[in-house]
Specification:
This protein is α/β, with parallel strands linked by helices. The protein contains 12 helices and 7 strands. The chain has a 5-stranded parallel β-sheet, sandwiched between helices. The N and C termini lie far apart (about 80 Å).
Length: about 300
């Protein structure tokens, strides 16, 4: 098997084990920074992928992540936070990790070779036409990830591949390929380091841009968050107050009236007659707050003009 970048020895690795602790840490930190910079070259592909995901989710489809090992942990971190941060329903997100639930305790290496389990996981999750699957693998050759993307494609799902090696089966199989060409690891082959860092950054960018397309972000605020604890309820009130110009207590009252929906509360503050009316305005605006506010302002202006007549 030809050596890939993710298996090669880093230029600063020679004599690493006999260097001073501070020198070792400098090498590790610099390698992480260098790996992170590799994401910039993938921006066009990430932008394309986000548009595809947003289209599938807005059409009622699901988003699935498939990976093994460290890449599986990166996928898991991104997927689990989508409902709380952006209000994407949990039943619209599927996480397929080699080894299943046991991977959360042991993360054994063997299951990443189980292609039958990958195909079965895609089928069990019901991934098909109208859905989208993201498969991750640092090497780009992990059998579980490659088989998952093949199975999803055969069922009509859109497929996105994320890998850190240019020439790889995963990127060849993916409808949209995201190459994160990170340098060799300081600890050769330990892709939980630089490659994993780049994957985490790329996934953060991908899911955040998807949320922007879906109307879940307004002026840098997460206006579709799921406020299910004290911290997030406070954050929701602060978001309503910041966007609407109301004080914190009034924002909290409007949130209660809206059933905790941030966008609805903001529209109530802007003059919507009721929570139901605000919801109708949002639906007509594609769940995007800015056009919904403009439509409400326009309607209010027409009503004011009629009153003056």
């Amino acid at each position: 098997m030809a050596e890939t970048r993710t298996e090669a020895l880093h230029r600063d690795a020679e004599g690493l084990d006999i260097q001073a602790p501070e020198a070792i840490l400098v090498s590790l930190a610099d390698a992480q920074i260098e790996a992170a910079k590799a994401v910039r070259n993938a921006i066009p592909a990430i932008a394309k992928a986000a548009k595809i995901i947003a289209g599938r989710l807005s059409g009622g489809g699901k988003l699935a992540y498939a990976a093994a090992g460290s890449s599986g942990l990166m996928a898991l971190a991104d997927a689990l936070e989508l409902p709380g941060t952006f209000g994407i329903r949990r039943d619209r997100i599927a996480i397929l990790i080699a080894g299943g639930d046991e991977a959360f305790r042991t993360l054994a290496g063997g299951p990443e070779d189980d292609t039958e389990a990958a195909a079965a996981a895609v089928a069990k999750a019901g991934i098909g036409a109208g859905d989208c699957l993201i498969a991750l693998s640092a090497s780009g050759t992990t059998p579980y990830a490659v088989r998952a993307i093949e199975e999803a494609a055969s069922r009509g799902a859109a497929t996105i591949g994320i890998a850190n090696n240019r020439i790889s089966a995963l990127l060849r199989q993916a409808e949209t390929a995201i190459l994160l060409e990170t340098p060799p690891e300081v600890i050769a082959g330990s892709t939980r380091m630089g490659a994993g860092t780049a994957q985490k950054i790329a996934l953060n960018m991908l899911s955040t841009l998807t949320a922007v397309h879906l109307g879940h972000v307004h002026d840098g605020y997460m206006v579709n968050l799921l406020a299910d604890n004290i911290k997030l309820r406070d954050r929701a009130a602060r978001i309503v107050a910041a966007i609407s110009g109301r004080d914190r207590d009034e924002a909290a009252r409007l949130l209660e009236k809206s059933g905790g929906a941030v966008k609805t509360a903001i529209l109530l503050a802007a003059g919507a007659d009721s929570a139901d009316a605000a919801q109708r305005i949002l639906e007509e605006a594609g769940q995007k707050l800015r056009p919904a506010l403009s439509a409400l302002e326009h309607d209010s202006g027409k009503d004011h003009a009629r009153t003056r007549k």
